[in-house]
Amino acid sequence: MDKIAEIKKKLQEVVGANPNFPIVGTVEALDGETCSVKLVSGLVLSGVKISASVTESEDYLLLEPVVGSDVLMLSGDGTLSNLYLIKVDQIGKFKFSQSGMKIEFDSVDKKIKIENGTVNLKDLFTDLATILNSLKVGVVAVGAPSGTITPDVVALVTSFSTKINTLLK
After folding, report:
1. pLDDT tens, 80-91?
2. Do 147 and 88 reside in the same domain of the chain?
3. In this structure, what DSSP letter does residue 119 have?
4. Do residues 85 and 92 make contact, with C-beta atoms less than 8 angstroms apart?
């Protein structure tokens, strides 16, 4: 081994550097926080981590790729058995959690989810629809009881509720 190669090797050992180059592949399947990726050579690798740290702890950011999209991977230890994604061309799902605030965008089912540990936005809108459905309408006659809301208003509230469920998780 020549002098320069020896120095380079020793320097890599001292600083813990690993000559690790990105690996290009295409996502074949998703399985929780891992995926299967097909390399250009045709080899399919399973168990590729979607994130370098695979735990949805209190605070995290997770970008889940779309099946069929191109990705770049790195190895944590220089082998093909410890790969994780570093770049995703198409995001199918985006999950973010910070200090109890959680946001999820899901382009597959075209819905979003927003919550903060005590309030969920979908539940909030569902409660609003329930309140609107239970509203009473005053009767013009003095002393007469109020009636339920009219059918056209019920139809509007039902439409509102359907739109909420279409948008939110």
Report:
1. 888 999 999 999
2. no
3. -
4. no
